Amino acid sequence: MTITRKAKSLQAEKAKAVKYPVEYLDRIGHPDCMLEGLPGNLREPYARWYLFGAEPSQFLRAVIDNDLFMAMASTDRWSIKQLRETVFWFIDHAPAACHKGRAQAWQDAGGWIGRAKERGEL
Q: What DSSP letter does each residue of 33-74 carry, written as one string?
């Protein structure tokens, strides 16, 4: 079985994204995932979530799932101060396909990179 050029290219991009997910998103300028405005300590975990569906911290997962009670219960003092900013960032910037009721399907598919076949990139 021969790997197509697109598949090889996607594998190379995935390797870059695994090592430096925030820089990868900044470099490609992905219109659906601009990290500006998201608190700094959440950018890398969210970038890994977005790109690969990697499980984030309990706090960030609760925000992704739109579970305010769990977000409050699983946070520290620093994150609780960032809760409002984080929620508004999700409302304004996060693609609907990767949070709230669709979060598990996003994770199961392997995030944006895992969905390359659906987009016809593989």
A: ---TTS-HHHHHHHHHHHHH-----HHHHHHHTT-HHHHHHT
